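just leaving the lab so this will be short. what follows is a protein written twice so to speak, once as letters and once as structure tokens for the fold. can you read through it and tell me how you think this chain folds. anything you notice is useful, everything is just below:
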Amino acid sequence: MGDFRLSGNVNFGRALGATAIRRGGAIMITGSSLSARLSITAAFLLGSILVLRGLSHGEPKLLRQPLAQFPVALADWHGSELPLPDRMIQAAGVDDYVSRIYGIGQQIPIGLYVGYYGSQRTGDTIHSPKNCLPGAGWEPVRAGYLTISPQGGAPIEVNEYLVAKGADKRLVLYWYQGRGRVIASEYAGKVWMVVDAIRLHRTDGALVRLVTPVDDGEANAQERLVRFVGQLYPQLNKFIPN
């Protein structure tokens, strides 16, 4: 999902926080490293699909709220709907999604996308932003991991991704969530999906992605995203089954 239609001029109506620690430093991305990673991802994804198609068990019906009911107000953050074009929804293969811009007053906004898959057995698997964004014209600058400690919750590790299109830069946080786990690594996510398909007869899951402009510097952009995660994360279990 490479659509980053954000504007710093949206008028919304302060947020409580979370803490974050960057792990392992930033990895600068070159064209050759990106091509190699895409090839490995494609091969791994194909293998996962073949394994899942070979499993004959049906998946249980899970109780969850539709993402259209996700709160429009999160503390002082207020959201505005940002529907995706039909072609994007079809390409992603999602069963349910929410796409909104959240902001506080005249502050720089945050784009939220959550895409939920009820099953990933038939080839409609979660698309990594690292694969989708270059196709939408966003060039990767660096990638790393960030450990966030939401208020009242256990720490979670997420991907931190800086992308650019000309002079326009965006900071992205994303992770994979479902079946009781929050996972940053695409490869670990595929492994656990196969394990859970065998053990639990479940392959459901979701991609959670946040993006914000870097107009006020990377440090401020990161702080803004981390504070928003502190409000967002406690709400997700109602919409993404554990």
In short: Residues 18-238 form one domain. The two ends are 24 Å apart (CA to CA). The chain has five helices and ten strands. Strands lie at 18-28, 73-74, 77-81, 96-103, 110-117, 139-150, 156-165, 168-178, 181-183, 205-213.
